[in-house]
Amino acid sequence: VSAPPRAAQLGLVACHACGLACSDDALDAAHPRCPRCGAALHRRKPGSIQRAWAFLLAGMIFYIPANVLPMMYTDVLGSGMESTILEGVVEFWSSGSWGIALVIFIASVAVPCMKFLILGLLLATTQRHSTWARPERARLYRFVELIGYWSMLDVLVVAFVSALVKFHGLSDIEPRLGIFFFGLVVIFTMLSAMSFDPRLIWDSEKVGEPE
Amino acid sequence: MIDAPNLPREPGDPAVRRRRMLPSLVWLVPIVAALIGLSMLVNAWLSEGPKITIAFKTAAGLEAGKTPIKYKDVVVGAVTAIALSEDGTHVEVTAELARSASSLTREDTRFWVVRPRIGIGGVSGVDTLLSGAYIAADAGSSEETSRTFTGLETPPTVISGMPGKTIVLHTADLGSLDIGSPVYYRRIQVGRVASYELDESGKSVNIQAFIDAPYDRFVTTRTWFWNASGVDVSLGAEGFNLKTQSLATILSGGIAFDSPPYNPGEVAPENAEFTLAPDQKTAMAPPDGPGQYLQLRFAQSLRGLAVGAPVLFSGVELGRVVSVGLDYDPTTKRFPTVVGIVIYPQRLGRAFDKLPKAEGGSPEHAQLLQTMVGQGLRAQARTGNLLSGQLYVSLDFVPRAPKVAFDATARPLQVPTVSGDFDQLQEQVSSIVRKIDKLPLESIAKNLDAAIANLDKTLQQINGEVLPQTTQTLQQAQKTLDGAQGMLGSVLADDAPLQQNLNQTLQDTRRTMRSVRTLTDLLGRHPDALLRGLPANAVPDEPAPADLSEDPVR
Q1: Cβ–Cβ of A43/B16 closer than 8 Å?
Q2: How many Cα neighbours within 13 Å face the side chain of B108?
Q3: A135: three-class secondary structure by DSSP
Q4: Any alpha helices (H) in chain A, and if so which ranges?
Q5: Interface pTM (ipTM) of the complex?
Q6: Which of A8, A21, A62 sits opposite B14 (nearest CB)?
Q7: Contact B9/A26, CB-based, under 8 Å?
Q8: Which chain B residue's Cα is nearest to A42?
């Protein structure tokens, strides 16, 4: 059983925006455009691996201050307290609120770390044209894209809570710099996932050869 | 430009064309991120302050990661960890200070926990009721720095940098003073007790007091300090005495000071040393100088003579009684009272300077005393207060005192005594009573009784016989008087013949008088009429005044 021919083998290029199949002669132009919708025309996302790596690195770098710096300042009856993500998790866990601790831990620690690992794995294997576990890798990519949006949960919670809890003198909650960096982490990991072209996973496939 | 998709094409190379993008631009993102992270790291490293360990007895109210460290009410750090010491006797609190607060690592910096405290002296740390305890710091001034400190259990009363002055007071005992006890000047609180410690000798207490800035200039080298603690009630020979400084001092004690109104001396330097007197009177008294112990033997009982009672010499309080005890005299088989007194000759003031100088030699004292005893110096226990019966010892020259041998070599020196005023009075009263006792009161009473019985008889006689007769006589006299009154009424009536006759007689007399006057007038003007008869121009019938008025005109 041989794999079906690739678009490139057929001398075709599909427009990313409208799906129009064009001759790959168009790619020779300086700035190839889709003749129908005018979108930029390219066979794969340009500089995909590089961009993904850069954004991933930036995200990983920002993940350090996001964890070290306090995320939220809670002031209840005059006793102010700044807490980082992990402190919050530990506090909720020790006070018995295991569910909340678990949610925070998954949303703030487990998911970002998982994204770093998955993206790093995808990028590394794709760069090496590895043929290892390609369907699983594709599934991982879809998973990363899916959870990307939900990583903003923490940022939203802090934004909501600090806007709602403003009882002057009694209790007060203010965001701190950590949540900003956490937001940056989420944005950069999403950008990294977006930059990655999942088709690159399959580019290592030997065309016309039996699997 | 549209290529038909069904156009047959030769399958070309599947080479994926990689456009030469601008990798540098994309890589700027992680570089910038790294730079931000790095700058924050550097910033954190630069702003990281010293880590210190403070030992406290308990960690009550302290919480790792929460409890702040405040200096001048500014948060300069936070407690990062609380752990028991290795031997378990205290708590070691690890705290991280801000870099700007590295001055707090000076060796003599003090740390204490601010908790709400309610004491007699006042309430403090109320703000921590809601916010929880915090560690307060007071920066020291030492050049040396340290990383380990011992926290104070109670807040210090004097914070460094406060304008004012520290003084040291020496006192025999602390009394009711405590750290934070107020210091008053003219009943205004001007300072407080900062600390106290037992003197190394163990015989006195050294109190460090702090006087606040505008008032510290009133502390001079000659300032008197006294303990104004509580209520000073004294019931002595001077009577009942009650003194207080303020309501707070009644409860928590205090110190008051004042300076001599004249010649107050220089402003005292920092850490100047003073003596804390037990009360104001003692404080203001001139220095006593060395005391001289004397012994007095009184034959009579000395109820009311207490230790501490004054010893007066010519009205000057010269010393006080230090002991009162009994002795046994085997020869007379009596129990005389032995009173020990201490006198301070310097209290005599000017008189002391004029006395023959005794350069610390007691024989001179003894000789002086000998001559004075020879002149009649005697000790007397006198009643200072009749109400309370308190006695005091009076040293005075008693005239006609019996001669007493004085042993100048005896130690302690003994001053002969005479019985006191009150005792003499008592003796006189008792002798009078004895004389009264000797009177033959019974026979006097009997005689008096008989005399009174006779008198009673006489009076009865008078009542029975004399009084009725007297009544009769009086009634008769009344009648007589009534008769006389009726007679007088008839005589004095307007139409009574006596009255009419009297009127007539009076009118006759008047006429006679008038004719006599005419005659005298005539004779006055014409004295010759007596001899020659009446002249022709004479107007004998004219009234005399008319003639007299016309005469000068003619």
Answers
A1: yes
A2: 7
A3: helix
A4: 48-68, 85-94, 98-105, 111-127, 134-150, 153-164, 177-195, 199-203
A5: 0.75
A6: A8
A7: no
A8: B17
